[in-house]
Amino acid sequence: MATCTKVNAEVEEKDDPGAAPYGNFINYYTFNPPENRLSLIPATLLQDLGYKDGHQNTLILDVGCNSGELSVAFYKHLVPVSEEVSDRRKVNILGFDLDEILIERAQQNNPLPSNITFIPLDITKDDDQLQDYLNQHGSSHFHLCLCLAVTMWVHLNHGDAGLLQLLSRLASISQHLLLEAQPWKCYRSAARRLRKLGRSDFDHFKSLKIRGDVAEQAREHLERHCGMEVIQSFGSTTWDRKLLLFKGR
Ligand SMILES: C[S@@+](CC[C@H](N)C(=O)[O-])C[C@H]1O[C@@H](n2cnc3c(N)ncnc32)[C@H](O)[C@@H]1O
């Protein structure tokens, strides 16, 4: 319990979470630094998934990348600076977020613009940009998709159907999916924060049928309806959230 509540307390002090109804906190990485997740993910992940030896081009998608710090740190974690330039060219990340200001910051601070691209995009809207990116890179899918700390925001703002559509869409364009779903206690905290600010509740909070163990229900959907299966669990983050790796069957 402590982790989520602590974070929420910090958020309440540092900025106005009511102004971040999509989880688009302006200083997210000051209270959840990339290391919190990266310490659980092996630096050999791409080799482990069979992507580095002779693979032409490895494409990674970072869903809801906020200001891009985790995308950059993830890239550096998996592709060490010491590697040959030709190897670096083979791994590309596309990070996107619905918040254009966060994406501008990500673009301005991007240390590897030939490998990492940031674009503004709302995943709940039909958009050709992901397909365009895949076409440009001559691939029919992303090899690895990161969906970290995003599911709750799509769920609260777009309901059960929105959450399931998000998972289905990501499964349809990814070979592997690394998922960190926020647990139910975070939903309650997010809704409480909004109420405390005198704003109306998230549109869907009270009517959600997917509640309780959200990560488990996300897993069931991916396995039963999207042709994916869990191949690894990287344990739980310091915020008590599971990091699950799925693979398309
Ligand atoms: C809590 S932050 C997590 C950032 C990052 N994924 C991480 O784990 O470090 C959630 C991010 O998801 C973004 N987001 C929420 N709904 C989205 C949507 N429909 N499309 C794209 N981004 C979205 C928010 O703007 C926010 O930056």
TrEMBL record:
**Protein's UniProt keywords contain Flavoprotein:** no
Q: Which CDD domains does the UniProt record give?
A: AdoMet_MTases
Which biological process annotations from GO are given for this protein? Answer: methylation; negative regulation of pre-miRNA processing
GO function terms (MF aspect): O-methyltransferase activity; RNA methyltransferase activity
Annotated Gene Ontology cellular components are: cytoplasm
Q: What catalytic reaction does the record list?
A: a 5'-end 5'-phospho-ribonucleoside-RNA + 2 S-adenosyl-L-methionine = a 5'-end (5'-bismethylphospho)-ribonucleoside-RNA + 2 S-adenosyl-L-homocysteine; a 5'-end 5'-phospho-ribonucleoside-RNA + S-adenosyl-L-methionine = a 5'-end (5'-methylphospho)-ribonucleoside-RNA + S-adenosyl-L-homocysteine
Q: What is its EC number?
A: 2.1.1.-
Cellular compartment(s): Cytoplasm
- At the top level of its lineage, which domain of life is listed? Eukaryota
**Main location group:** cytoplasm
Keyword line: Cytoplasm, Methyltransferase, S-adenosyl-L-methionine, Transferase
Similarity remark:
Belongs to the methyltransferase superfamily.
Which PANTHER family does the protein's record reference?
A: BICOID-INTERACTING PROTEIN RELATED (PTHR12315), RNA 5'-MONOPHOSPHATE METHYLTRANSFERASE (PTHR12315:SF1)
Q: What does the function comment of this entry state? A: O-methyltransferase that specifically monomethylates 5'-monophosphate of cytoplasmic histidyl tRNA (tRNA(His)), acting as a capping enzyme by protecting tRNA(His) from cleavage by DICER1. Also able, with less efficiently, to methylate the 5' monophosphate of a subset of pre-miRNAs, acting as a negative regulator of miRNA processing. The 5' monophosphate of pre-miRNAs is recognized by DICER1 and is required for pre-miRNAs processing: methylation at this position reduces the processing of pre-miRNAs by DICER1.
What name is this protein filed under? RNA methyltransferase
